[in-house]
Every structure is written in C-alpha cells, then in structure tokens.
Design a protein that fits this description.
heterodimer; A: alpha+beta; Methane Monooxygenase Hydroxylase, Chain G, domain 1; Periplasmic binding protein-like II; MetI-like fold; nine-stranded antiparallel sheet; 52% helix; B: mainly alpha
Chain lengths: 529, 302
C-alpha cells in the first residue's frame, strides 16, 4: 500500500508524547511476542505462531515509519478479520478435502497408539496405580481424550509417571509435582481436576489407554485408580498390521469408503481411523449422491423463496405504512413511528423464541385467539408461512423507517409539479414517488436479501428446521441451506466435518455469486469515490 | 440525517375538524385505521411477553395478551437464581456487548477514515473484498474457529473455549462490519474541512481525532447502540463456545432455560425478556431521530 496525497504527509509534525507512545507500543508488542513464542512452540500451535509472528512484523513495519498512513488505520480491524474470518474459511476449504470427523482426528500413529492401548486387559499381576487427571488451562469438559494428561503414583515405590492418550508414560519430574496422600495433587502447568470434574468427563476418560511399553498400557479404573495391563492388540510396524493376540486375527490397512481403516480377513474393521486426505471425494458425494444433491437443491429453492419473500413482504408492508402515515395532516405521526419502531428494538433471539410459542397447536396464542386448530409446525406449508410471518414482524419496522426517511427526502416541489400537471394523488404516488424511492432503497433491499439468505437464527430458533419427513433427518421443510449444513456438521451423531465443510464451501461459492450479482445490481458501488 | 421531518410537522398543523366527517375519513381517518392495525400487529407480541411475565401461572396455555392476575413471582424466581444465574448472564452480556461493540465501532471508524480520506492502491478492491467477506456466513467455518480457539486455550488459558475473553475475540472477527456505513458518514463531512486543517499544520491523526470524530459523535453513538443489539442477539457462536453456566450470555442462557421446560419456564423466560427488552426499547425511543437518520443515510444518498 503506497499512499499518495495523504493528508499529514506534508506536515511531519512529531510530538514528543506521540513518539513515546509509539515506542511503548512497539516495545510492548516485542515483549509479548518474545514471551509467547516459546509457549506456542512448546504447545505445537504452529498456526498461532505464524499469526503472532506475522502480526508483530506487520505492526513493526506499519507503525515504525511515517509512511504507509492508510495501513496504520486499517490494520487493527483487518487483523481480527483475517484471523477470525479469513483463516477459518481457508481452513474449512482445507477440511473439505479430508475425512475429518469423529474417530478421524489424529495422525495414523496416534490412531495406532489409541487402538492398541484401548485393548488393554487386566491380568492376574496387574498393578493398581493412584490416578490424577490434569488439563492445561482451565477445565472445559472437552470430549477430546488428548486434552487430558494422566498422573500415576505407584503405591509401592511411590514413583510418579505422566502420560496421555497420545504420549507414552514417562517418569515425571519430581520437582514439578506435588504428591499428597499418595496422589498427585498439583503439577506445574496443569490444573488437576477435582473428583467431581473427573466424574463429569469419565465417559471420555474411561477408554483412554496410556502406553507404558510396546505390550503394556495403563487404563483408568474408576475415577481415582488405574491398572497396568497387557495389550491384546499389537502393532507390527514392518508389515503395518495389528494382530489380536487372543483370537489371532490380523488387521491390515484397507480402504473402506473413502477412509483407510485396519480391517481383518473377514472384513471387520477397528473403529478408530485417522485424518486422511480424500481428494475431491466429499464434493463427488455432494454432487452425485442423488438424495443429498436433491436435498441441497430443494433447500436452495426454499432459501431463495424465503429470502425474496421476506424482503418483499417486509418492504411492501413497511412502504405501505410509510406512505399512509407520512401525511402531514395526520395527527400523532410521531407516536405511530415510536410504536412501530418497537419490534426493531427487541433483540432477535427474544422475538423468535416468543413467536415460536405463538404457533403451538393446542395452546398457542394464534390458534387460541382466532379459534383455529392449525398444526403450524407440523405441516410444511404452514410452517413456511409461520416463518415468513414472523420474519415480517421482525423486519417491517426497518423497511418502514427507511421508506419514511426516503419519502421525506423526496423534494416537495417534485410532487407539487406532478399534482399541478393534473396527476391524482395515487398517480403521483405510483409514477413519481415509487421510482424515486426504489432507486434510493434498492441497495438496502439487496442487502436485506443477502442477510436473509443466510438468516440462520430465523430458522433455527423458530422451527429448528422442522417439520421433518418421517424417513429422513438431513433436511426439514423449513431448512434453508445454512441450517441444513449446520445440522450435518453439528447435529445428530457421527459428525462428518469433512463433508460438512464441502457443503459449506458450496454455500460460500453460492454466496459469492450472490455477492457478485449484488455488486452488479448496486450502482452505488460504482462510485466508491 | 437532515430529513425535514420536524419543520414540516410544525408548518402544517392539521385541522381535520373543519372538514365534514365523511371527507375527513376519506382523507385522514382511514390512515388512523391502518395505523391502528399496524400498531396492534407490532405491539401484541410485546404485550404478550409483559403479560406472561406477571401471570403467576406462567404456562403457555394460561397466558393471553391481558394478564388475568398479577404477581412478581417470576421476577423473584429469576433473580433468586433458581433457574440459572440470570444476573451473571446479564453481566456477561453487558461485558461482551460493550467490549465487542466499542471495538467494532472504533476499529471500523479507523478503517473508514482511511477508506474515506486517503487514496491508495487496493482501496477499491479492499472495500469490495470487505463487502464480500462480511456476506460470508461465518457460522459455516465454526469447526475451524472452534479448533483454533481450542489451540489458543492451550497457549493462553484465559482465551480458550468456554471463556468470555475467548468468545469476545472470536466476535471481534466482525470488527470491520460497520466500515461501509461509517465511511458513508465520513463522506458527508466536506473534505475542505480537513484540507484547511492540514494547511494549518495538523497531522492526519489530528484531523481524524479533533475535526472529523467530534462532528460524527451522535451518529456513531447510534451505530454503537445498533451494534450492541446486534451483538446481544448472537446465539449460535455463544451456544458453541459458552457451555459453563457461569459463562453464558443471556441469549444462550435463556434459550437453554426455555428449551429445558418450554411450558413451565415461559413465565420466567418472559420476565427475563422484559428485563432485556425494556431498556433497549427505551434507548431506541431516545435515539429515534438518529436511528431513522442513520438507517436512511445510506439510502437517500444514492
């Protein structure tokens, strides 16, 4: 970015406080960077390392010189934009070419370690160990077993070992550990969980095995103890196979679907897989699997109807009210305006949750007041109508406000001239006011369309996407694309993040096309002067 | 901002009573009828919430627009924390809204100044890219954000999952969300003003902080309020990131409470809604002039 003609360039005023402030800022950035970089390397957080180093470099380049003035103003917001909007989008595109999902998170080595450690069985001479569980940072009830570090104290020789699902047990550094009553009660860099917290996440912890040798591992047994036992599944690196020492079955790496698993001769596979690139398989599935493809298309159709319908309804009602209530002879115009502004002031999540109660078939306000017996959320058409009606309530005040503003900005003489030329009130409205007003508000209408296109809350908080057909759960009648993708990624069992990411990328592309159309449509953008 | 609504109201004092009733209705009266219907439509859900919040039974079936009995039972239950730490959620929401909105408006103002007043390579492309990115549904890259924040929590635990600061910095991804709007405001201030100041020896920072910013304070304050309500309405990010009861915001907490037992918690939910809704509605009434001006500033310029 080179700046030409920047104001202030000519006048190199350099005040003493300004200089001090600048030095303090750069010093602070340097200090934080130097302090945090080793931590990031220790935690293997390469992404954050890159972010930190690049940001620090950026700050030094931008704020140590007098040049690059626009950059100084744009940088702070851009930093957050890049880190929390653009980087995630890039990562999502990356995920869409993998099999990322439940039981497919780690590397192959981690998968092997976890498979073999999980097969530990108690034997006659299994030794009990006192168990403590620690996490780095605060306790968050994570479901990823790799987040927990296990500490074991041997009841006989009081030796302390630590390890995790991905790290074999090693002797702990006695200086960093505090042992109280034969258990680890504190460890440097870790928060030791209380019995209650361990209990809360025991579902995640109970299947974790911490490797102690090629043939043995430690496993939790209850929330305070662990036992050391023998693995029944053993990995052989030379042949890349896993052998079950009890049944004698041999599992070798084979592809099932798009992912590789360990599979035995009869075709039984071990559940744990690992993160793999799958090429374009997710996209192929999206576009060739006929049921998913048609669901996506149908959701797209309803998304268009929903977004266009919402804009049209809210605008028609808002504009009509603005026309009717903008008469100068009308008393109480200010009161009308104040009251009609109210729905706009209610936070959206409250409106949606309140409205969702109105549609209840048996005791909802709408059925009770109008003495109807409509099953609003049980019937696809009624559910769609309910969504549109609610969105009308939430959106018409905005359209009323902008229409009123635009109406008042239309010069009086234009109208007077039309009336003088013999146009009736109605004609003047239709032929003179309407076109002027549409020119003024059309960018806002297009923006409103784009907003509703991905209006996740309006669907999720009102109908939750329902009603769902009896036989399938991927898409309900009121699901727009974004809520459908959300359900695929987070809803239900067996999260398939790779596939959900592919759907997200497809929606990104659709949104991009929409934006391109909007650019075309919005003449205002042409004069970014 | 410069709509002539106030002058026009005064110049044309209506005198409807001089007309015959029939003509009065044809010209003006029907407008009141339409206005009345619109008011009913706009207000009934709000009245319902008010009514439900003071109806001691507190079930959906027993609540109408007009309360049949009056009791502050639900407010008492809510504040006592029986159904969840409501005051804690309120405080969390205030912290999140204030920090995020102030940061959003401040960072947008900085960037808007550059986009409005400087000419540099990539300026137009930057503005368009910004518009494109703000249109992307950020929700869809949530899996990536989740794993990023989980990683950040390992470096700096206070910024991890299920912490308010962690949630706040994720929300800051939308920091440049108001650039287009605010650049429009900057564009309305004549450039001659800052050029004169530059000739007098002001630096670009002084032009920004002493000349442009003060003249935009009212409209920026309004933008801030609109931004606060927008941030308050975030439900999805909150429900993914804030899982501990003490870390929830109002949207996440009240949703959890209502969906837990929809029928019996309605009254308490309504009481909570009133306590959120009423301050915002009152604020909007005070800022009405600016809100109307602010929403149309972009529209009528075209």
């Amino acid at each position: 970015m080179t700046s030409t003609k920047a104001p202030g360039h000519a006048t190199r005023s350099s005040t003493a406080p300004g200089l001090v402030l600048r030095i303090l800022l750069l010093g602070a950035v340097l200090a934080v960077t130097v302090w945090i970089v080793p931590v990031m390397i220790g935690q293997r957080q390469w992404l954050w390392l890159a972010v930190t180093v690049l940001a620090a470099l950026g700050i030094f380049v931008l704020y140590s010189t007098r040049r690059l003035v626009p950059g100084k103003y744009i940088f702070p917001g851009t930093f957050f934009l890049v880190v929390f909007l653009i980087v995630p989008i890039v990562l999502t595109v990356g995920y869409s070419f993998t099999n990322f999902g439940d039981a497919k998170r780690g590397t192959k080595d981690e998968a092997i370690a976890s498979i073999t450690s999980n097969s530990v069985q108690q034997t006659a001479n299994s030794r009990r160990q006192a168990l403590s569980v620690g996490v780095t940072g605060g306790f968050t009830a994570s479901e990823d077993p790799a987040d927990y570090t296990f500490f074991f104290v041997d009841p006989d020789d009081h030796s302390v070992r630590e390890g995790s699902s991905t790290q074999a047990a090693t002797a702990a550094d006695p200086d960093s550990i505090t042992v109280t009553d034969g258990r680890v009660s504190a460890a440097d860099g870790f928060t030791i969980l209380t019995a209650k917290q361990v209990n809360e996440v025991y579902g995640t912890l109970k299947d974790v095995g911490v490797e102690t040798s090629d043939t043995t591992a430690l496993r939790p047994q209850g929330t305070t103890q662990a036992f050391e036992g023998t693995k029944t599944l053993r990995y052989d690196a030379a042949s890349d196979t896993i052998t079950d020492s009890i049944s004698g079955a041999v599992y070798s790496v084979k592809k099932v679907g798009t992912s590789e698993y360990f599979v035995d001769a009869d075709g039984n596979r071990l559940p744990q897989s690992w993160l793999q690139g799958v090429g374009a398989a997710n996209y192929v599935r999206l576009f060739t699997d006929s049921s998913i493809g048609s669901q996506f298309l149908r959701a797209f159709g309803w998304t268009l109807v929903f977004a266009a319908g919402s804009v049209l309804l809210t605008f028609l009602v808002g504009f009509a009210l603005a026309l009717v209530l903008n008469d100068e002879r009308l008393r109480g115009r200010r009161i009308y305006r104040s009251v009609l502004l109210m729905p706009y002031a209610v936070p959206g999540f409250i409106s949606l949750l309140v409205w969702s109660n109105f549609y209840n078939r048996d005791y909802g306000l709408i059925n009770q007041t109008l003495h109807l017996h409509l099953d609003w959320f049980g019937d696809p058409t009624l559910a769609k109508a309910a969504v549109l009606l609610t969105n009308l309530w939430m959106g018409f005040p905005y359209m009323f406000i902008i229409s009123t503003g635009a109406l008042q900005s239309i010069p009086k003489d234009v109208l007077e001239a039309a009336r003088m030329d013999g146009a009736s009130r109605l004609q003047a409205t239709l032929k003179v006011v309407m076109p002027l007003l549409l020119v003024a508000v059309s960018p806002l209408l297009v923006a409103s369309f784009a907003f509703n296109f991905n209006n996740f809350n309006a669907i999720e908080l009102l109908t939750g996407g329902g009603p769902f057909p009896a036989d399938q759960y991927t898409r309900g009648a009121t699901d727009i694309i974004i809520s459908m993708v959300y359900r695929a990624a987070f809803g239900g069992s067996g999260a398939d993040f790779g596939f959900a990411s592919a759907m997200s990328v497809a929606l990104f592309v659709l949104t991009g096309i929409l934006a391109a159309v909007q650019f075309r449509f919005t003449a205002r953008l042409e004069d970014i002067s | 901002m410069t709509t002539p609504q106030h002058t026009s109201r005064r110049t044309a004092e209506p005198t409807p009573r001089r007309m015959p009733l029939g003509r009065w209705f044809a010209e003006i009266g029907w407008r009141h009828l339409v206005g009345f219907l619109a008011v009913v439509f706009a207000v009934f859900p709000i009245l319902f919430v008010l009514s439900a919040s003071v109806n001691p039974l507190g079930t959906v079936s027993s609540t109408g627009i007009i309360p049949k009995a009056f009791s502050l039972e639900h407010y008492r239950t809510l504040l006592s924390g029986e159904k969840g730490p409501f005051l804690r959620w309120y405080l969390n929401t205030i912290i999140v809204c204030v920090v995020v909105s102030v940061a959003q408006v401040a960072l947008s103002v900085l960037a808007s100044y550059a986009f409005s007043r400087f000419r540099f390579t990539g300026r137009r492309a930057g503005m368009l890219t910004l518009l494109l990115i703000m249109m992307f549904p950020a929700i869809l890259s949530m899996i990536a954000v989740y794993s990023m924040i989980s990683g950040l929590g390992k470096i700096a635990p206070m910024l991890g999952l299920d912490t308010l600061p962690g949630y706040i910095i994720v929300m800051l991804g939308g920091s440049l969300g108001q650039v287009w709007l605010i650049k429009g405001f900057f564009d309305t201030v004549p450039r001659e003003l800052d050029e004169a100041a530059i000739i007098d020896g002001a630096s670009h920072w002084q032009v920004f902080s002493r000349i442009l910013l003060p003249s935009l304070v009212p409209i920026l304050a309004t933008t801030l309020v609109l931004s606060v309500v927008g941030v308050m309405s975030d439900f999805l990010l909150g429900s993914i990131f804030l899982t501990g009861d003490d870390h929830k915001t109002l949207a996440v907490g009240l949703y959890g409470m209502l969906s837990g037992d929809r029928s019996n918690n309605l009254g308490v939910f309504a009481a909570g809604s009133v306590m959120i809704m009423v301050p915002v509605i009152v604020l909007y009434q005070f800022l009405q002039r600016y809100i109307v001006g602010g929403s149309t500033a972009g529209a009528v310029k075209g």
